[in-house]
Amino acid sequence: MKIWPILTIVCGTAFCQQAPPPPATPAAPPAQAAESTEPAPPEVDAALRERVDKFYQAFVSGKFSAAFEVVLEENRDDFIGSQKDTYKGCQTGRVAYSENFTKATVTESCKGDWHWHGHTMPVTVPLVSFWKVTDGKWYWYPVKQAVYETPFGKMGTGDPANDGGSNTAPPGLPPDPRALATNILKQVAINKAEVHIDSSKASLQEIEISNGMPGPIRLTVDKVGQPGLSVTAERAELAAKGKARIFVKYDPSDPALSCSDCSKRMEGATLATIRVSPTNQVLDIKIVFDRPAKVAQ
């Protein structure tokens, strides 16, 4: 399996040569008071949004010290110690208030460029931050978490030691970014990466692809250059936790083959490529042409 750029907020410097998202904890806290069912007073909502805008503007301008004004002194070491990234722009989405409008969970959408092994791709990253009122003003504060919000849905790191709620990583950065990225890539897989074809007769073989992601994925199969051979997906979109078949069909009597007798004695191998979005994985299937006596049973 080839891995090209993967859109992810779990991308640490070990992968991308670029810092991860700002220290806005991207997950719900382990214990959160019930969300208020009443709308916030306009002046309260306006005051919070002004402070949130100031916080994220620091990650747009790259002037991170500007965020100090909305970070309590007791939390500034966490903020300073966290690795930071810059964004092209951020927009506040959902705001959930609790504890009589003295605490809030804010969902922010930030746009930027992400890098993976020399490739760059534009992404919109969902970030969730936590805020509380202290001395009459709203301040950002860090929260430890075991589950992380990614563009593919909420995911753990895949490591039970890290998914039990113990997290000593800087706010907003998963305890083990490498394990979390690996866990995401494992969510989409094929049940076999090689098929053998009897080149002397028509055949149809199936490969199963499964989507363990919490959201849908799209499949694109590159056209193979071998006449008489076709590789197609059962469906272009695969729902969360769904499965689909990949059909590998060979017809030695295809008119595209210039020599039908020659095709029946064909040997060698070719590759079929399946592209998956939004993970940007590339899954290769090796198709081996065997003479009748060599075909795997």
Explain this structure:
The chain is mainly beta and about 300 residues long. The strands form four sheets. Strands 1, 9, 11, 13, 15 and 16 form a six-stranded mixed β-sheet that branches. The protein has a four-stranded antiparallel β-sheet with strand order 2-3-4-5, with helices on one face. It has two domains: about 180 residues, Roll (Nuclear Transport Factor 2, Chain: A); about 110 residues, Immunoglobulins (Immunoglobulin-like), CATH 2.60.40. The protein has five helices and 16 strands. It is about 15% helix and about 35% strand.
Notable features of this structure?
single chain, mainly beta, Nuclear Transport Factor 2, Chain: A, Immunoglobulin-like, 2 domains, six-stranded mixed sheet, 5 helices, 16 strands, disordered N terminus
Q: Can you give the helix content as a percent range? A: 10-25%
* Global mean pLDDT: 76
Give a count of the beta strands, DSSP E runs of length 2 or more.
16
What value does the Rg take, in angstroms? 25 Å
Describe the biggest sheet? 6 strands, mixed
Give the N-terminus to C-terminus distance in angstroms.
25 Å
Shape-level CATH architecture of the largest domain: Roll
> Given the structure, what is the number of helices?
5
Summed up:
This protein is 14% helix and 37% strand. It has 297 residues and is mainly β. The two termini are 25 Å apart.
Ordered list of secondary-structure elements with their pairings:
Blueprint: E1 2-3, H1 13-16, H2 42-61, H3 76-81, E2 89-98, E3 103-116, E4 119-134, E5 137-141, E6 148-150, E7 153-155, H4 177-185, E8 188-190, E9 194-198, E10 203-211, E11 217-221, E12 229-233, E13 237-238, E14 243-250, H5 260-263, E15 268-277, E16 281-290
Parallel strand pairs: 9-16
Antiparallel strand pairs: 1-16, 2-3, 3-4, 4-5, 6-7, 8-10, 10-14, 11-13, 11-15, 12-14, 15-16
